[in-house]
Write a structure and sequence with these properties.
six-stranded parallel beta sheet; three-stranded antiparallel beta sheet; elongated
Length: about 300
């Protein structure tokens, strides 16, 4: 029987309560060397839902697993139909105040790096540089046979040509860019192969049940070693891919600070958890540091 990936987490211990005072975050940033680890919660204000928060997509949607994608042509058809539709909305998302604040902190020399568990590219769109995309990017496609990479826009055009008139109405869009469609709406959607070798195409993202590339993990571990503190933004830390860096920082005696409305799996390792909406919290922090974050850009 195939094991399913960890999709949810329920606290089994009394966790420290959150605070509504972002001053500890401002204090940490003021000393510099802060490593940011962001999750889906930082993109909710851009219209992209998270997985596990209130109204999160896991309440109605089970993400595609790597094992199912590889094993089943039917699963790939369902995935690409839903993802193709979702990309139209997902690709129009714009960075919000939280992303812009992180970019501003970087430009002011307060950060040692940014690791994101998101696949939406919104940190880079806001101006953050050298962002490590822990789970990859929906903007790229990879062939599982020849290994060639291509822009998602090229695949979108090919799928449009192969599926004229494909205009179903989705029940919702998920953090992985996957739209909620019924099997009837998917219908006989046509999947296109790699234009180079005819192989199977996959978005360049880490599916549930798939491992983050070891070299990427080691690069992130090195960033933790080089940082003075770790700032987690909008992640429940349910899956080990992000939690391991929190544990590493705590074991090394580096302060861990978390900004997330709900309790997280990393709370017991943190010196504080700020329970505030991310955009408001980070904008307040920026103001206390004398950094302006307006509606268009952070300067």
């Amino acid at each position: 029987m195939r094991m399913r990936p960890t999709l949810s987490w329920t606290p089994t211990e009394d966790l420290p309560p959150g605070t509504t005072d972002p001053e500890p975050v401002a204090d940490a940033l003021s000393t510099g060397g802060v490593l940011v680890l962001s999750g889906a919660g930082i993109s909710t204000e851009s219209g992209i839902p998270d997985y596990r928060g209130e109204g999160g997509s896991l309440s109605r949607h089970t993400p595609m697993t790597y094992q199912d994608f590889i094993a089943s042509a039917r699963a790939r058809r369902r995935y690409w139909a839903r993802s193709h539709l979702g990309w139209r909305t997902f690709g129009r998302a714009r960075s919000n105040a939280g992303h812009r604040a992180v970019a501003a902190f970087g430009r002011h020399g307060l950060l040692s790096g940014v690791i994101t568990q998101n696949v939406d590219g919104l940190h880079q769109a806001a101006g953050s540089e050298d962002v490590v995309e822990l789970h990859g990017s929906l903007a790229r496609v990879v062939c599982l046979v020849c290994g060639a990479f291509s822009p998602r826009g090229e695949l979108a055009q090919l799928l449009e040509e192969a599926n004229p008139g494909f205009e179903p109405v989705a029940a919702g869009i998920n953090p992985d860019g996957d739209a909620d469609l019924t099997d009837a709406q998917v219908g006989d959607f046509r999947v296109v192969p790699c234009t180079i070798c005819g192989g199977i195409l996959k978005p360049d993202v880490v599916f549930f049940g798939e491992s983050v590339p070891p070299r990427r993990v080691e690069h992130c571990r090195e960033l933790v070693r080089e940082s003075t503190s770790l700032l987690v933004l909008g992640s429940s830390l349910t899956v080990m891919s992000g939690l391991r860096f929190v544990r590493q920082a705590a074991q090394a005696g580096k302060p861990v600070l978390i900004v997330n409305r709900e309790p997280t799996r990393g709370d017991r390792h943190a010196v504080t958890r700020v329970s505030l909406p991310l955009g408001a919290a980070l904008t307040t922090v920026a103001e206390r540091l004398g950094i302006t974050v307006d509606g268009r850009a952070a300067v």
